[in-house]
Design a protein that fits this description.
- It is built from ten helices and no strands.
- It is an all-alpha fold.
- It has a single domain, classed as Orthogonal Bundle (MetI-like fold), CATH 1.10.3720.
């Protein structure tokens, strides 16, 4: 997320200021890496939406079947990804955990985007104390590690899904705000903005109808990268005991549950980690493709 956000904020990916058809980018067939990313995302989304319908969702297990190895390690088709220390099918648990993990990541990314884009537009289009105050707020927020925010929130309100979303939102909005602020500041004196201002358009209309569509490509690319970071952050918080409560299945919780079994049963912790890495990889590949497509300088 940091690398892509820095690239977008540095000005290398400049928003379009020319609305003519020649400035529009031609849509090309996705390259192989993008197809891999899209396939990973489609599989995980389908798993999160439809997978729980195929499992009973029961938390009970069969102790006589505890720590069965996955199929690739000599296990059976009854438990293709093996079982955990209570005899629960690991494939079922990964499928059930996908819904909560992806839902938390999407909710936090959307909320962070709404807050960050709004404040970035106001800071970039404003001047004087408005820009100074919002920039100071961004710097202050970025100076606080998200783990410190999580510890404070959990200490006051306890563990819950809502608190995790709040922590991730407070962590992610700054990336949106910085990128949008720089892009908006570069467009503030553009000819089409001056024309709208002379025509009597309000500031809100200028931001919504003229500035926002031009910074939208940067926001879309950043969203794919930030969503992957949200997945990792949620897993990290849950692993440290600062995330969702134990009754809610997430990939981070499954990784934490299996950390004491790495030597005798590596699959209990490793396979949920593979699911997490696959989601982040898919988002990263799609984000790189969108970046190349939306910001390609066509001849």
């Amino acid at each position: 997320m940091t690398t892509l956000a820095s690239t977008l904020a540095s000005g290398d990916a400049r928003p379009r200021t020319d609305a003519s058809p020649r400035a529009a980018h031609r849509w090309r067939r996705p390259p192989a890496r993008a197809l891999v990313g899209l396939s990973l995302l489609a599989t995980l989304i389908a798993t999160a939406l439809l997978g729980p319908l195929a499992v009973d969702g029961s938390s009970s297990g069969v102790l006589s079947e505890r720590l069965h190895a996955p199929l690739l390690a000599g296990g059976s088709l009854d438990h293709p990804l093996g079982t955990d220390n209570l005899g629960r099918d690991l494939l079922d648990r990964i499928i059930l955990a996908a819904r909560a993990s992806l839902l938390i990541a999407v909710a936090a990314t959307v909320l962070a985007g709404v807050v960050g884009v709004t404040l970035g537009l106001v800071a970039g289009f404003g001047s004087g104390w408005v820009d100074v105050a919002l920039t100071w707020l961004m710097d202050t927020q970025q100076a606080l590690p998200f783990v410190v925010i999580a510890i404070g929130l959990v200490a006051v309100r306890g563990q819950s899904v809502a608190n995790v979303v709040v922590v991730l939102t407070l962590t992610g909005w700054v990336s949106y705000a910085r990128v949008v602020r720089l892009a908006t500041a570069s467009l503030r004196r553009a000819d089409f903005v001056d024309a709208a201002r002379v025509g009597g358009a309000s500031i809100a209309r200028i931001l919504a109808r003229h500035i926002l569509p031009n910074v939208a490509p940067s926001v879309v690319v950043l969203t794919t990268q930030l969503a992957g970071s949200m997945l990792v952050y949620e897993a990290g918080l849950t692993f440290l005991g600062l995330g969702v409560p134990s009754g809610t299945l997430t990939w981070g919780g499954l990784i934490a549950d299996g950390r004491v079994l790495l030597l005798p049963a590596w699959w209990v912790s490793t396979l949920p980690g593979v699911a997490l890495v696959s989601a982040v990889l898919g988002l990263s590949l799609v984000g790189d493709w969108l970046n190349d497509t939306l910001f390609r300088n066509d001849s």
